[in-house]
Design goal:
The chain has helices at 3-8, 24-34, 52-69, 84-87, 91-97, 123-133, 180-200, 246-251, 275-284, 311-327, 341-350, 361-366, 386-412, 419-425, 439-449, and strands at 38-39, 49-50, 74-75, 81-83, 103-107, 110-118, 142-151, 166-177, 206-209, 221-228, 234-244, 254-256, 262-264, 266-272, 301-305, 332-334, 355-359, 368-373, 378-382, 413-415, 430-434, 452-457, 465-466, 473-474, 477-481. By secondary structure, it is α+β, with helices and mostly antiparallel strands. The protein has three domains: 24-284, BirA Bifunctional Protein, domain 2, CATH 3.30.930; 294-397, Anticodon-binding domain (Rossmann fold); 413-481, Translation Initiation Factor IF3 (2-Layer Sandwich), CATH 3.30.110. Helix 3 crosses helix 7 (180-200). Bound molecules: '5'-O-(N-(L-prolyl)-sulfamoyl)adenosine (P5A) and zinc ion (ZN).
Amino acid sequence: MTDSKTKSNAKDSKQAKLPAKNNFSEWYHELLITAEIIDNRYPVKGMCVWFPFGFAIRKNVYSIIRELLDPDHQETQFPLLIPENEFMKEAQHIKGFEDEVYWVTRGGTAPLEVNLALRPTSETAIYPMFKLWIRSHADLPLRIYQIVNTFRYETKHTRPLIRLREITSFKEAHTVHATWEEAAEQVEVAIKRYSEFYHRLALPFLVSRRPSWDKFPGADYTTAIDVIMPDGRTLQVGTAHHLGSTFAKTYEITYEAENGEQKLVSQTCYGISERCIAALLSVHGDEKGLVLPWEVAPVQVAIVPILLGDKEKVLSVCRELQEKLGAARMRVKLDTSDERPGAKFYKWEMKGVPIRLEVGPRDIEKGVVTLARRDGAKKAVPMVALVEAINQEAQELQLVLYGRAKKFNEGRVKEVGSIEEARSQTEAGVALVPWCGEVDCGHQLEDQVGANMLGEPQYQIFSEAACAVCGKKSTVRTYMARQY
Ligand code: P5A
Ligand code: ZN
């Protein structure tokens, strides 16, 4: 018997269990508070406070985004406030956003000469500057991004990390190209980078081309990434937009081509918000709390000393291990608090720590530690090979998390043939529905199914089937789901 087993058999430590995960909404809200991610008690609707622990996750997650973009994008920062005249230039864009904009209209007691919009997104802040920055073909392509807060006066039900009025972690990239084709290629690059990002979070996702009525205001087309949440509803966790020359015309962004001709640029933009963290926590978490992939866990290894027998000896071995793992660049926490081992186990499980080490006198005698992985796997590991063993287990945990999520995902997407089938499938999942591609049939589908159209799956080919509305043969399919 291991040392920890003798101790945790004592029924002295109660586990703070979360509501069942099939009661997703309640589970989610409890998780955010209990695991100290987000405090939703700030007295402005749709605006939340990051707990330091939640913010540490955010930092790790966003450093992956930076790592993926930095090789060929430059990070920058633009002002929060946008003058009304610039904001109001692009008609399609205004139409999409005007109901969601917060306005600053006064400086102290005096009315402002020009009202200022709190950016809901930054096209209209950035593109007037692009006009000044871009002169010739040598300035292209231009790729920048910023990670900032944006404000949207959302009227739908707000939810922490999911639908906010202050989006605190808006990563927006903006790129400028000489041709429409190059911009189209950039949209593909963006989706590739986002795919890699979500893969590193062990999250499977769907990629689809949004229908024309749901594209970004001002875009030629929008490609989106959606994650299926535990209740079967989808969450849009990233979008990439081909902007064509719409904004280039409005903001007069031109370049001198090699032959001396002045030409309009083509643009793209793509964005991700803290919704990526909502998806991360929701998909992997369980009734014991967070389950975090190794790369983003603020604490990667928790060492719990089992203080029996020679306590000083146990502690000194624990400290040595802590140092050794720290030197291997692991984020380690040695828990020397007064709680009983069982209570410590629950605490670190709630915090999603990927690996827990239990170290007691009998383990030490045998030259081993007990290694417990957050997904339940447990084994004795020789101390001399601990670093390698932990790295191995971290990789295996990643595979287990991805595999589990992938299986869930595959179980929630189903091809259907009719409106009735689509209606029943979208009650707790995603339906893949044959569609002729006509806007009219699309609207009818949404009305009759009672769910949203996510759009055409990308990178897949389908055989002919009859449009669920008009019966016309087509190879087009659309995902349909209830969306967050
Ligand atoms: C792309 C970046 C844009 O705003 N302009 C710059 C483009 N696209 S978007 O689709 O409108 O937003 C990008 C992503 O942000 C998330 N998001 C939100 N997250 C939390 N709360 C909100 N209210 C909110 N609104 C949008 C979505 O993931 C969206 O894909
Ligand atoms: Zn049709």
